[in-house]
Structure formats: C-alpha cells, structure tokens
Amino acid sequence: MALVHTEAIVLRSYNLAEADRIVLCLTRSAGLVRGVARGARRIKSRFGAALEPFTLLMLTFYEKENRELVTLSQTEILKSHFNLAADPESSNALAYMGELLVEFAPPHESDEKLFRMVSACLSAIDDAPQNVHMVLRYFEVWLLRLAGFLPDFRSCAECRAQLADPRIYLNAEGKPRCYACSRGTGATMLKQTRESILATQRLSPTEFASTSKDLEASSRDQLANITHRLLVAVLERRPRTSLWLQMEADKGKVSSAAGT
Prior knowledge:
Shape: elongated
Number of strands: 8
Distance between the termini: 64 Å
C-alpha cells in the first residue's frame, strides 16, 4: 500500500453509504484520483469543509495496486473558493470546468501543466468573477492544447500553409483552413479571434481576461463557438453543463440588442 502526499483540487463529491463520501480530485502528482473519505458526512468529521468542490488541498491518501478507489487519510485546506459557490454564474462555470476535467484529465497520471493551469484559472475567477467567461475561454483553449486537440491557428489544418488574415476560413469542427483548401467556404475567422487564441500561449488567465475587455462581441462569440466546436468534436457530444453557457450567451445578445 503506497502513501501519497500531494496538492489536489476537489472537482466533485457524492454520498456513499451512511457516513462516507466519494471524492473526485485533480492532483498535482497523481492526475485524476477517485477516493473514498470514510466518515466525511459525520458532524465531527476530520475532513470538515475540505471536500467542497474546487477547494485547493494538501491531500494524503493510500493507494492499493490494481484498485481504482484510493482511501483519503488527511486533508489541509490551502485555498478555498467558498465565495464562488454562492454566485450562480461562478458556480456554473466551475461545474463546467469540472465536467471537462473529468473527461480530459488522465487518471492516476501526473500532468503538472494541467494542474497549474487549472489552479491559475481558479485564482483568476476568484479575483475577478466578472471575467469568468473569458477565463473559461482560456481554460478551454489550454485544455484542448494540453490534450493535443488544439489546431495550430498559424497554419492551415489541411495543407499546413501559413495563414494570413483575413482569408482564413473555419470548417464545421472549428479548424482553420486557407482559401485554397476551403475554396472560400465556411465562416471567416476574425482577426481579433485569432489574436486572442494566440495570446493564450503567452499570457496568464488573469492577464488574458483583462486584455480581452476591449474584444468586440463578434470576436467573443466566435471564440466561444470555435472552442465549443472543437470540444464537441473530441467528446462526440455536447458537455451537459454547456447549456448554461448557451443561455448566458443568449442573455448577452438580448442585453446588447436592448441597449442599441
């Protein structure tokens, strides 16, 4: 039986039997881990509030060979995001991130870049909840990139020729194509959209969200459309929590129309 001591982010938890909880965590040194917290539902549980979603922990657990479930032993809260749970928009955003991480994060396999990216995105939302949607765009782009599914938006997805604005066209999956390969069909990729995607590679999520404040609504919508198309192509379905994103987008369009 191996004892593991690592930083972890709680993604979700649910009840087991009368007093226990199953907890799903993204850990720094062991990837996606599913474990059982014995007695976590008791009033005087040693876990306390540490198992709330998206709490950053120092986690200790026991791992048995050929056993998917680990046994949680000790937890120490390093940073909580309890305030975000009270905000419906932020809470829904975290649920969306959690769903995608369950799909993309490698189980029991360390991914340092993924862990640091998620931690940075959480801090960015915590510091400026009003920027949650642009932080989500950053999260989606990096999730796709780390998993190897993000196209290179500097070259055509088919012939690999270097792309130049404004003759860049998007196929049904959101991948960029040159004029020759697309024959001028498909949605034209906006210059601001392309610049935003490339900016994620050199900026932190906080910096990206801040510099995206002046992004035109058309580019914001197109960026969201591209990342969602790419995610659907990988998952072969729409994320369940993406319905909230669509509702928020529709709400924004109605508000914009009312202000004109």
